[in-house]
Write a structure and sequence with these properties.
- There is one protein chain.
- About 15% of the residues are buried.
- The protein is about 30% helix and about 30% strand.
- The strands form two sheets. A six-stranded antiparallel beta sheet has the order 3-8-4-5-6-7. Strands 1-2 form a two-stranded antiparallel sheet.
- The chain has about 190 residues and is of the alpha+beta class.
- It has a domain of about 120 residues: Roll (SH3 type barrels), CATH 2.30.30.
């Protein structure tokens, strides 16, 4: 039974390999655009990295909801100090994405929880991208645009969610610091 787990609604679910990005929708597109290298926790300053991030939602009653690996980030590593990587967001999507150029920091141990990919250091990240990869990326891009347009035109939360997200982003901007603080909570173990 190690291949299954019981979720929050008491349903039996297959256990996913967190290091396997093959079914993570944003990654399907981005892996076709650049030559990514699996680097685990071997990152250096000025590397451009891709990783999945958790989202923690604080509710008005003081409770929190934790969603694992639902945000996808591409970042530049601005600095590494005391086991922490200070990052500048280049691209973010998924649940509660960051604004471009926003600054965050994460423990390197925590970053490598779901795997880290980086651009090659010795040559352009697009130098070895094949014509087939580029074609596949264009196909996925069209599918993503089609799905986005369907959601907005069906009235299934498209316009409401975009209005909500823009409100949330305005709120984030007014409260944001240069580097976001580490997340702490009594109902979850602290991040390493």
């Amino acid at each position: 039974m190690d291949d299954y787990y019981i979720d929050n609604w008491n349903e039996l679910k297959p256990r996913k390999n967190l290091s396997d990005w093959s079914t993570f929708e944003p990654w399907l597109y981005w892996q076709t655009q650049f030559e990514w290298i699996d680097c685990n926790n071997e990152i250096a300053e000025q590397d451009v990295i891709a990783f999945r991030d958790d989202v923690i939602i604080s509710h008005q009653d003081g409770s929190r909801t934790f969603k694992d690996a639902v945000r996808f980030n591409i970042c530049r590593v601005a600095n590494i100090k005391d086991g922490k990587a200070y990052l500048e967001i280049i691209h973010s999507e998924g649940e509660e994405p960051y604004e471009n150029e926003e600054h965050i920091y994460r423990s390197i141990k925590w970053l490598s929880r779901y795997g880290i990919q980086r651009w090659p250091r010795e040559h352009s990240p697009t130098e070895r991208v094949s014509v087939e990869q580029q074609a596949q990326g264009d196909k996925i891009k069209r599918e993503r645009e089609t799905n986005k347009n369907k959601t907005q035109s069906s009235g299934g939360g498209g316009q409401c969610s975009s209005a909500f997200n823009s409100k949330q982003k305005r709120k984030k901007k007014t409260q944001s610091k240069f580097y976001s603080a580490s997340v702490k909570g009594s109902n979850r173990p602290l991040k390493p």
